[in-house]
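Exercise 4. Each item below gives a protein and its sequence. For each, produce the structure-token representation.

Item: S1 motif domain-containing protein (Lentzea sokolovensis).
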Amino acid sequence: MNDYSWPEDGQRSAERRCVAWSATVRTLPVGAPIAGEVIGRQPFGVFIRIDGVPDAVGLAEITAMPLDAVLPPLGFRVAGVVTSHAEHNRQVKVRLDNW
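Answer:
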């Protein structure tokens, strides 16, 4: 089994994220606390399904984690803070506080 995975994210999900992007940015401004579930893992960070915002995908990059951090596993619950928004791929950038 591979330790890394992409979130299950078909074309339909990408289209929903695109349509909902303006609302996502308004709902999750920089500094907003978030909680959610890890839905994908890559060497550079984890993708998160953010609670209460079903069309949003969060990304917590390894550079936004403590130096001794180990990536949380798929399905794990995490909490953090919105740090920015990536317009080009419609991702909410997150700094994780705990997991």
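Check: The beta strands are 33-42, 45-50, 57-61, 77-86, 91-98.
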